[in-house]
Amino acid sequence: MAATSEARERVLQGAAKLFRERGYLAVSMNDVAAALNMRKASLYYHVPHGKAQLFAEVTIRTLAQFSEGIHAVIDAAPPDLETQLLAIADFVLAQPPIDSTRLYRSDLPALPESAARTLMLVANTALIMPVVEIIAAAQIRGDIKYVDVKMIAATFMVAVESLHEQSRYRGADKDELARGMVALFMDGLRR
User: Fold this and answer.
1) Measured between alpha carbons, how far is residue 132 from residues 84, 126, 156, 162, 179 in Å?
2) Rg of the chain in Å (alpha carbons)
C-alpha cells in the first residue's frame, strides 16, 4: 500500500507542476503520463475520473498549502496592515506562482460546473478571505478608510502574483517590487 501512496504522490506532484506551468487546457493526460514516464492506464488507476479530477485535487492541495502559509505569516505578524500585507507578499513570492488570473479566466470555465464552483470557493477562501479579514480588522481599528474589502483583497492578491512575472521580465528584485506595491496600496488606503 505504501508504494501506491508514493506513486499517487508522484502523480499529484508531477501533475501540479504541469498544470502550474501550462494551465488546465494546455495539459492532457498523455502529457502527465509522459512527464511521469508511466502508461496512461496507470495514471487512470490513480485518478479514475480523469483530468478534471486530477486538476481539482492538485489545485485544492496547492490552495490548502497557500492558505496555511498565509495564515501562518499573518499570525506571526503584529496587527499592522502594512506589515501583514508585506508578510503575505513575501510568502506568496517565495512560492511557485499559481497564476490565479489564469485559474479564474480559463481553467475554471473549462471544468465541469460543480468542480469549477468548488474550486472557486476554495480559491476565494484560501487566497482572498485572509486578506479580507486583515483589511476589515484595520478598518475596525480605524487605521484605514472605508473600502470594499473584497475588491481590495482580490486586487492585492492578483497584484502580488503579478510580481513573479514583473520580476522576471524587468529583472527587478521581488522584495523591492513587493514593498513598492504594498506602499502603493497603503498610500491609497490611509486616512
Assistant:
1) 12, 11, 10, 19, 19
2) 19
Bridge partners, residue 144, by sequence: 190
Q: What is the Cα–Cα distance from 172 to 176, expressed in whole angstroms?
A: 7
- Take residue 74 and report the three cell numbers written for it: 499573518
Please provide the DSSP assignment of 44-101 as one string.
HHH-TT-HHHHHHHHHHHHHHHHHHHHHHHHHHS-S-HHHHHHHHHHHHHHSPP--HH
Kindly report the pTM of this predicted structure.
0.88
Q: Confirm if 24 and 55 have CB atoms less than 8 A apart.
A: yes
Q: Which pLDDT value is given to residue 98?
A: 87
Percent of the chain with pLDDT over 90: 76
Q: Which CATH number fits domain 52-189: 1.10.357.10, 1.20.1250.20, 3.30.470.20, 1.10.10.10?
A: 1.10.357.10
CB atoms within 10 A of CB 93: 17
Considering the chain, what percentage of its residues have pLDDT values greater than 70? Answer: 96
Query: 78 to each of 9, 81, 83, 85, 120, how far by Cα in Å?
Result: 36, 8, 7, 11, 30
The Cα–Cα gap between 47 and 44 comes to 5
